[in-house]
Amino acid sequence: MLTSGFSIFGGPMKRVLSLGLLLAWTLSAMAIPWQASAANGEITLYKEPGLKGDTLVITDDTDNLAYTRWNDRARSLYVESGTWEVCRQAGYHDCVTVHAYERFDDLQRIGLDRAISSLRQVEEGRP
Fold it and tell me: Among 125, 107, 90, which residue's Cα sits nearest to residue 43?
């Protein structure tokens, strides 16, 4: 017979179990924003070939670069993370897909020199 007063149904053990569940729930809730931000990609546009000159770092879909004064101005780009559609027209039309860690020192190579008007991140494997 237990005489210490500890049991799994009440007393100190119940409080330990409750605190453990609370800690697990808190940690899982904290992980959700981190996981969401990890999915966000990043791409950098450069005004000169060779990843030189002024830069524009993009982390969100941008349907029209005219709002940023970068429409048809990029000469090179680097994809830090994510898979992106880089498009000749505003509204995501006439696009080229680029992937994480790709470096384009001269956008003429893919027909986008001074021709980018919109960009958006896409899921891997999207048609």
Answer: 107
Spatial CA neighbour of 71 closest among 55, 59, 50, 89: 89
Residue 116 burial by CB count (10 A; 0-12/13-18/19+): exposed, middle or buried?
A: buried
- Return the exposure string of 3-20: e unless at least 16 CB atoms fall within 10 Å of the residue's CB, then b: eeeeeeeeeeeeeeeeee
Kindly report the pTM of this predicted structure: 0.68
Instruction: Report whether 116 contacts 95 (CB < 8 A).
Output: no
The more confident residue out of 16 and 39 is 39
83-89 and 118-122 strand pairing: antiparallel
CA distance 53 to 55: 6
Q: Please give the single-letter amino acid code of residue 51.
A: L
Amino acid in the structure at residue 100: A
Q: Which string of b and e fits 83-110 if b means at least 16 CB within 10 Å?
A: bbbbbeeeebeebbebeeeeebbebeee
